[in-house]
Predict the 3D structure of the following.
Amino acid sequence: MPKALVNLDLQKNELQNARLQNLASAPASPVEGQLYYDTTLDRPRFHDGATFQTVLQSPASLTTEVTGTLPVANGGTGLATITANAVLLGNGTSAIALATGTANQVLRVPGGGGAPAFGAIDLAQAAAVTSQLNVANGGTGAATLTQNGLLLGNGTGAVTAVAELSDGQLAVGRTGLAPVAASITGTANRLGVTNGAGSITLNVNTSLLPSPLSGDANKPLVASGADAAAWGTLGVAGGGTGKVSVTANALLYGAGTAALAEIGPLTNGQLVIGSTGAAPQAATLTGTGNQIAVATGAGSITLSTPQDIASTSSPTFFNLTLNGDTLALNADGSGPKLKDESGALAIRNAADSAYATLKCRDLVVTSGTQTVLNSVEVNIGDAEIVLNGDITAAAQNSDGGISVARLAATTAITNAVNNGAGLIRITDTAHGYSTSDRVYIAAVVGTTEANNTEANPRWTITVVDANTFDLQGSAFVNAYVSGGTAAREINARVSWDESDARFESRVGAASATTSKFLAMKHTATIGDGAATSYVITHGLNTQDAVVSVREAGSPFNQVIADVEMTSASTLTVSFATAPSLDSKVVTIVG
């Protein structure tokens, strides 16, 4: 019998067609909450942590199965009825007493003590009201207030009072402090102050004002004596400008003792430019075609060349012609060189003794059949490698993948001849190869054209017999002298199989490859609070899939659901009740 070793959370789903374990007596070693059906008592029983309790068939009726009044000693009131809106008063173990009142009455303790009763508050009684009504309760918090004094707030503290103000006094504020009683004071020979009962009179000393007082609206007040002033225009000799108005945004310049002269206002990009022996002028900078450009703006002048020409810049020219065959990238000879090698572009090191490193952002190789990278490691920083990226129609779709070249153990070559059709025929006793295998040949002396090179890294072969095979696409030129080895290529390849629309791995020679499809994963989040069944399109092209369903939120528990492998690209997940919005995650591996 299967045993569940963990708790099962049915998420409020039904446990259908189930029954309790039937036992004639209580089971041994029970735990709290354990259930069973007692066939002797014909009753279900549960364990309360101490003993098994029997479940009654029906609840007890307080009307027919309970009589009397529950006393205070047993948690009751001892009363069969309670007056509406009455206040309950404790009475020891006796029945609870009741107190009732009328509108606006309060519950109070009588002067002589005893049971509380409803009545009005007697403010004349010292015991009824004590202390003062606090500010927090709408009072002042003070027992007495100064006659005619202004009241000052004090937060939740008692209200305080400023002393009675005398004639002409004001309550004058102080930042962060309580205001104080103070009087306005005047300034000798300028402003006088007279205080009265409830009044303040201010007066001005007019003896020092110029006459007439109105003056000239277009002229300043100019001092002309120790105690007198007159209206006029302040000239340059007196430290002024000698002008009664200045044009808005104009610049001023000196004119000896005459009034200051103006330039402007300046327009966008204009400067004040000096003129020997003459007044300065407002003018703009001008550029030179294809050399210096000048752009003016509001408060700005920008000078620029047609392109960056700093020592670290990369200027662009329509044409650049070199008379030699080498372009050195550093004037001091420390950088690489670009050279013409029989029509091919070569990148050489500074000493021109070896090829240099090429670094570029995008390298496009077109119109070729093979790109050879002969290095120890190819480090690709791109996030994606695209194969067959030059297709332009669905009909051009084909398999594509990445292979890791591997070679089997080498065998010895003993001869190389012309096969009669111009191809090289290799003698390799008991080679074990098959037609279409790819073979690497090296160290042949004489017929050196049989040796694989960087440009031709492998031969595809046609087997003649158990001891000989032809090199497809070869051309026999030189007679065989000695030596040579052959090794069959046994690649490991991960590729896209277009016919099955799946990734697969292949290991082995071209003529005998073992293929296995790679597992892929699809994940979907489901749940809308309404539907109980969800069709998931996974596109794995197989019904041989492993499916798991879990909660989308912590602690991400795995849940049990009904799963149907509807087709090779879809499956259906069903629940007893509709899962809430995006609450379940389905993972499919196949």
